[in-house]
Amino acid sequence: MNTTPFPPELTLYYSPKACSLAPHIVLEESGLRYSARSVNIRAGEHRGADYLLLNPSGTVPSLAIGEQILTESQALLTYLADLVPERELLPRPGTLARARAHEWMNFISSSLHPAYRAVFRPQSYGGDSPEAVESVRVRGQERLLHALKTVEQRLSGNIYALGNAFSAVDAYLFVFYLWSFDERLGCEMPERSRYRALAHLVWQRNSVRKVVARERGVRPYELPIEFTGADASTTEVA
Ligand SMILES: N[C@@H](CCC(=O)N[C@@H](CS)C(=O)NCC(=O)O)C(=O)O
């Protein structure tokens, strides 16, 4: 028997500008009550015993649902969207459109996100060998360029990831559009006009502005100047 009350008590564990920004946005879009707790990755809080009890992977996001914990961005996005079907944050289960949403989210979590990780933190794959680390970084750049081109191709004919309406997939894509401006990437980003147009639409949403402001209040991070104009002067510490 399911004893979780509805709506359940929801607490998101997140880190500013991390992939947890996607479920953070979707929580805001859901209209549900929730708490958001930042995890200080820089101070190693995600590797502390308390956090590892919540999420043995030592990563954000994690979502406390009453007494239970759910991890993995795609699982959180799916669960949250299904809590509020009337908001149409994902297509109905059992439809091809729903499978398309999972196709996108799997691609993001298994190709786009790891490519960034290989460039930002090549030592997490390359270990102690400087040659291996450098090789991971370079291969990561190649994979990232390929993944960004794939995003652009997949968006062909669509305004949003799934067509003409905003969905949780767009929140997920938005995070990695922000990351594409990071100076640490060390390579020129490919043409991404469709991705840019999508990100700009997402940026117009009140939920996104609110959540980004909350996260930047915890730890300032720079936004692409194309979003902010002259107001992009916050110190980058992500
Ligand atoms: N597959 C996981 C990946 C989560 C992940 O790698 N999160 C990053 C932030 S974007 C993190 O917590 N990194 C800390 C670390 O790996 O030490 C998901 O999609 O939720």
TrEMBL record:
Q: Which Gene3D superfamilies match?
A: 1.20.1050.10, Glutaredoxin
| InterPro entries reported for this sequence | Glutathione-S-Trfase_C-like, Glutathione-S-Trfase_C_sf, Glutathione_S-Trfase, Glutathione_S-Trfase_N, GST_C, Thioredoxin-like_sf
Q: Which CDD domains match?
A: GST_C_Beta, GST_N_Beta
What is the protein name stated in its UniProt record?
A: Glutathione S-transferase N-terminal domain-containing protein
Residue intervals of the GST C-terminal domain: 94-221
Q: Domain named GST N-terminal: which ranges?
A: 7-88
Q: Which domain of life is it from?
A: Bacteria
Looking up SUPFAM superfamilies in the UniProt record yields:
GST C-terminal domain-like (SSF47616), Thioredoxin-like (SSF52833)
Pfam families assigned? GST_C (PF00043), GST_N_2 (PF13409)
